[in-house]
Specification:
This protein is of the alpha+beta class. The chain has helices at 105-110, 160-163, 166-187, 189-193, 203-209, 220-228, 230-235, 240-251, 311-321, and strands at 2-4, 10-16, 30-34, 39-48, 54-61, 69-74, 82-83, 88-96, 117-128, 137-148, 266-270, 296-301, 327-332. It is built from 9 helices and 13 strands.
Length: 341
């Protein structure tokens, strides 16, 4: 919807970038719909029809919606209030209503009726730079009506004849805002079922879902990782691979299996030497009788000095996850902070 009010040498034209679908019959005002949280604009076009420079000013008068922000910005790199002969400029009149406009209790206390339509007036003045036109003069008086409306999508599913009624949109918005939290939960249900993104209050339910007992000695992030891999730990229970994963989830140390054994942060060494066999080695100072303890392994951890770990909890993890007939040794060698790899 546009409206032009030429006078003398300055032409003023307003264009609403978001006009309402319907207007009262016989209304000639420039109308702009404001959706909470979304910026809306009215473009003002100024054109100097004269042969000399012309100064101009604008002033917006009237009550704005509660919390509404208004600013004026000229297109281009420069913002000038003087028009050269035959020059045309475009000015953006921007309005922004807070996203919580309809829920703001302070706004309701100030205005219990919650006004939705606001009538404003835009005044445009000129200031001539020649000798005979120095006084400030009113060039245009443009009525501007702001309609604050909820931004809904339910109305788009109705036939066009029903969308023409403003009451229908506001009525359907009541149900849309009411059901919005439920619909958002359904759309993001996967995030509620993933231990890494689920709300903290939902973690006990997820732990019960996989029959895992939460331990308060574990940090929140450790518990999330543990629940994420709980089924995998069940599958690998009693294996070296499973114990390495369990220790990795608690300590946060990398599983750098591609590195040499002496450089790994988490490693498990098994006793795999041969028992006493005559004929395979000469008797003397280099010979050894016996091949070590059967079903025995050594767990080596190399954490950072700045990140100490609970040795008691480490032993509980090993006792819970190893086969009952196995024995083990635990070696914890802290690394200097400057050597983290």
């Amino acid at each position: 919807m546009t409206q032009a009010r030429p006078r003398q040498t300055l032409k003023v034209q307003l264009t609403s970038m978001r006009p309402p679908d319907t207007l009262p019959q016989g209304s000639e005002d420039i109308a702009l719909v404001l959706y909470p949280g979304i910026q809306s604009e009215v473009v003002m076009q100024l054109e100097n029809l004269g042969d000399r420079p012309l100064g101009w000013q604008s002033d917006l008068k009237g009550a704005l919606p509660t919390g509404c922000q208004f600013w004026q910005q000229q297109d281009g790199d420069t913002d000038t209030t003087t028009l050269l002969p035959r020059q045309k400029v475009f000015i953006s009149l921007s309005f922004h209503v807070p996203a919580d406009f309809f829920e703001n209790q302070f706004a309701l206390q100030r205005d219990p009726s919650l006004t939705l339509n606001y009538s404003l007036h835009l005044y445009v003045y000129t200031e001539g730079e020649g000798e005979g036109d120095r006084d400030r003069g009113l060039v245009a008086l443009c009525p501007l009506t702001l309609y604050v409306r909820p931004n809904g999508v339910y109305i788009n599913f109705l036939p066009s004849i029903f969308r023409q009624a403003d009451f229908t949109n506001r009525f359907l918005s009541i149900f849309e805002k009411t059901f919005a939290p439920t619909l958002q939960t359904l759309d993001l249900l996967w995030a509620y079922l993933d231990p890494l993104t689920a709300p903290e209050a939902l973690l006990p339910f997820l732990a019960h879902w996989v029959a895992w007992e939460l331990d308060n000695r574990w940090s929140l992030e450790q518990q999330r990782r543990l629940l994420r891999y709980a089924v995998t730990l069940y599958r690998w229970h009693g294996t070296q691979k499973g114990l390495l994963l369990y220790l990795h989830l608690y300590t946060g140390l990398p599983l750098d299996e591609n590195l040499p054994e002496a450089e790994r942060h988490v490693s498990i060494l098994e006793s795999a030497t041969e028992s006493f066999v005559l004929g395979s080695a000469p008797l003397g100072s280099a010979a050894a009788l016996g091949g070590g303890r059967p079903y025995h392994f050594t767990v080596r951890l190399r954490p950072r000095q700045s990140d100490p770990i609970d040795e008691t909890l480490i032993r509980e993890i090993i006792e819970r996850y190893k086969p009952a007939f196995c024995t083990y040794n635990l070696e914890i060698t802290p690394l200097p902070d400057a050597s983290n790899e």
